[in-house]
Write a structure and sequence with these properties.
This protein has 86 residues and is of the alpha+beta class. It is 31% helix and 12% strand. It is built from two helices and two strands; from the N terminus they run αββα.
Length: 86
Amino acid sequence: MVAKRKKQVNPPVGTKAHKARMERQRARRAMDAKAKKSGGDKNKNGIADKREKKDISHKKALSRGGTNKDGYKLESRSKNRSRNYK
């Protein structure tokens, strides 16, 4: 028996949450593209090897008005998500 689960609903276009989501995607894609140029995707799954199982952490939280221009870095998932920037 398959468990019933609510369908994910992305935030509407133009909202603050949508803009933050797009910023996160741009940061991930930029890091992956940079790594691909230097041969950093050995298993060819589209994710940079150095980014596997890690998060992109923004120096100034997107929820507090930060952008990719403020800077971002790689950080473990647990460390990045334990900060609670909500």
